[in-house]
Design brief:
Length: about 475
């Protein structure tokens, strides 16, 4: 990583991209920070919830959710490397109305992040509920409140200084440990009465829409969270920039040297994103299979105050009673890694957004670090407070996932705009890449339209026509509770 300000491109930071595979792998990392933020809310909670409700039938949809969004992530990353712009700086160039200095997309993102606060508040709740398994006194007030704010404050302390390398290494360690534990549980499951058969796996791999609408709704809610969501795609640019990809490419010019460096660092970014996708997709499938094989067969649904206790059955049923304590520790670690990685990203995105509004100079290093430090304390306090008010982590995560689907619409629009209006002609991709980008964009757009129809239009129509009136949150809560 560059020792200078990575958000200001300078000739002195230029570095040639490595040609060897080993050399490229040494610069891998940004994608795995995203993986750490994905696994806690998307995989451990939302994916197992879908598996518990649907059985094996929707495994294909969860895998599709992981694969379909990565090309949009690649387009964002390509733009960050070639332009050196942060995410909010890039969004501020989109066409459309402006309010003050900021583009409509930035203001819309800020509004949607209110719902996203609930999602990560649910993760705080997951950590607290896991701790309750060891310390039952934390399950009641004031113990629950104290535990919630202690968790929030500890994450604040870790992210306060905002060092990239610390975030990268901690994310990799926390993610790797729990992945191995989950893999061991899945392997052990095959020696029990609940073993996954080849017919189970094949039935889940063939696209099929379940007849029960409530199951499909939960799956669509999970679509926004599993794999890279809109906020993770937006966060990716910050990690690429702080890793040094844009700084090593250098300020854009017409020279063949810049073109060679840009293509080289973009190629490394492809490696980073795809390897991370393989990791979190494998983790997603493992969680889904455990949820379908164990929880669905026993009629267990991970939600409410029993969230962690129910999830623990996925491990005790395969590895034995001793695994409960190990799972709880693992759940705390993986959920905590989500808080850690999410806060590190959110502090940068909020500081950047406020910079575009005109409240600070994001590119100025001291101003940026001060804003990140303040956000590192304010945001977790909001997460903890929301959990204490709502007290339903599974519902909070699904609600946040619905908001993420809408954020994905902004991200898709921006990715297409970057590709066709701002991409340097020397970096044009292949026809296959463009086809994949459009397939991904259309799939995300259709899912988002369905979510908007079901969660905004239908409740609004019902409010006008009582007695069928029902609010968005009530309707969502109803199918999650079922």
């Amino acid at each position: 990583m560059s020792t200078n300000n990575p958000y200001v491109l300078q000739e002195s930071n230029i570095k040639e991209p490595p040609d060897s595979l080993l050399g490229r792998l040494q610069y891998i990392g940004p994608g795995f920070i995203l993986s750490a933020s994905i696994v806690g809310s998307g995989e451990l909670i939302a994916t197992t919830l879908v598996g518990a409700k649907a059985g094996f039938v929707l495994m294909w949809f969860i895998i599709f959710s992981c694969l379909v969004k990565v090309v949009v992530q690649l387009e964002f990353g390509k733009h960050a490397i070639s332009s050196g712009e942060s995410t909010m700086a890039s969004l501020n160039t989109l066409p459309g109305p402006r309010l003050g200095k900021a583009n409509w997309s930035i203001w819309t993102w800020l509004i949607l992040m209110i719902a996203k606060m609930m999602q990560v508040g649910g993760i705080v709740g997951g950590v607290v509920l896991a701790a309750v398994e060891f310390f039952p006194g934390l399950g009641q007030m004031p113990g629950r409140a104290i535990a919630s704010y202690v968790v929030a404050a500890s994450v604040s302390l870790l992210v306060f200084k905002g060092y990239y390398l610390l975030i990268e290494k901690a994310s990799l360690i926390m993610l790797g440990g729990f992945t191995l534990f989950t893999l061991a549980s899945l392997i052990a499951l095959q020696s029990t009465d609940m073993a996954i058969t080849s017919s189970n796996f094949i039935s889940g791999s063939i696209p099929n829409i379940p007849a029960e609408t409530t199951i499909l709704l939960v799956a669509i809610g999970a679509f926004g969270i599993t794999g890279v969501g809109g906020d993770e795609i937006m966060a990716y640019n910050y990690w690429l920039i702080e890793k040094g990809y844009a700084a090593y490419t250098g300020p854009k010019n017409d020279s063949p040297e810049w073109e060679r460096r840009a293509k080289g660092w973009i190629r490394i970014m492809y490696w980073d994103a795809i390897l991370a996708m393989v990791a979190y997709t494998a983790m997603t499938v493992m969680f889904y299979l455990l949820g379908a094989a164990i929880l669905h067969r026993q009629g267990m649904v991970p939600e409410g105050a029993e969230l962690i206790s129910t999830l623990g059955n996925m491990y005790t049923q395969s590895l034995g009673p001793w695994a409960r304590s190990v799972f709880i520790v693992g759940a705390i670690i993986v959920l905590y890694s989500t808080l850690f990685a999410a806060l590190a990203a959110w502090t940068r995105m909020f500081a950047d957004a406020f910079g575009r509004i005109g409240l600070l100079d994001f590119e100025q290093e001291s101003s940026r670090k001060r804003a990140i430090g303040l956000a590192a304390w304010a945001i977790p306090a909001m997460w903890a407070t929301l959990f204490l008010v709502m007290e339903n982590p599974a519902l909070m995560v699904i609600l946040g996932g619905l908001a993420t689907v809408v954020i994905l619409l902004i991200v898709v629009f921006a990715a297409i705009y970057f590709r066709y209006q701002r991409l340097d002609k020397r970096l044009l991709p292949s026809g296959l890449y463009d086809t994949t980008l459009w397939i991904s964009s259309i799939a995300i757009f259709l899912v988002a339209l369905y979510v908007i129809y079901d969660k905004v239009y239908v409740p609004a129509r019902n409010l006008i026509s009582p007695p069928q009136a029902v609010t968005t949150i009530e309707s969502t809560a109803r199918y999650v509770e079922r």
